[in-house]
Amino acid sequence: MRKIFFCIVAIAMMTACGASEQELFDEGVKSLEKSEFSKAIGYFDRVIEKNGSNTSAHNAKGVALFQNGNFDEAVVSFTNSINIDSTSYKPFFNRGNAYLEKKAFKEAVRDYNFANGLDPEQTDIYYNRGLALLALEEYEDAIMDFDMALQVNPNQALVHFNKAKAQLGNSDPLGGMESLVYSINLDGENGAAYYLLGVTQLSALSQKEDGCANLKMALSLGYGDAKTWVDDFCQD
Questions:
Q1: Quick one: signal sequence residues (predicted)?
Q2: Distances in Å between the alpha carbon of 74 and those of 96, 100, 165, 166?
Q3: Which member of 21, 44, 109, 126 has the greatest number of CB atoms within 10 A?
């Protein structure tokens, strides 16, 4: 009876009493949801030991590695998942996110394109691809992606903010200022948005009063880059 009881407890704890592939995977997901990333990786590794063709386990392991900041290893896991089954957008999207963190922007765009082709209804793809395109200074394409994200939910302060950066990069200060105002209205604590708005008002339109007011607001929110502009252009 003690032996049977031990095995029942051990199965519940996912130790070595014959836990199934699905049980191990489910425990890995639970650990992932609890932000116990190293523990989750251990469970997913055990799933892969049982079945190296479990594409979901490779993808989930990649997510755990990504959340743990191990972006190179995450890329490997997502690639393993893709090599097993290239019909799901998820590992392409996830690998794109890992490349984005690694600042490998061309590779990120490539994977987001694959993910978008597999499931164009996944709107997170548009925003993340927009960030990669912005980093590549492909401003018009970035604006298109940010607009797609805003069609789904217009109340996204960061999307408006990054769209503004793309518009300013695309020599559209009026459009950029409009997007910055939207961003600030949705999130009045974004010092970078006040800073960028103030700089644009001063440099593009010579709007000293409004520009200085926004630069001072940015400085009050802890955005230190605003100090030079305030000191140079906003002293009475």
A1: 1-19
A2: 11, 12, 29, 29
A3: 44
Residue 2: predicted pLDDT: 33
Please report the pLDDT score of residue 1 as a whole number.
33
Report whether 144 contacts 132 (CB < 8 A).
no
Q: E-assigned strands of 39-185?
A: none
Q: Tell whether the model's pLDDT for residue 79 goes beyond 90.
A: yes
CB burial of residue 122 (10 Å; 0-12, 13-18, 19+): middle
Mean pLDDT of 43-72: 97
Q: To which residue do tokens 């690998």 refer? A: 95
Domains of the chain: which residue ranges?
A: 1-122
Vertex 159, ends 157 and 165: CA angle to 5°?
105
Name the token pair of 37.
């990333």
What distance lies between CA 68 and its chain's CA centroid?
14
| Contact residues for 219 (Cβ-Cβ < 8 A; gap 6+) | 191, 226, 227, 230
Dist. CA 182–CA 149, nearest whole Å: 15
25-47 pLDDT tens trace: 999 999 999 999 999 999 999 99
Tell which CATH classification among 1.10.10.10, 3.10.129.10, 1.25.40.10, 3.40.50.300 matches the domain 1-122.
1.25.40.10
pLDDT tens digit string along 194-209?
999 999 999 999 999 9
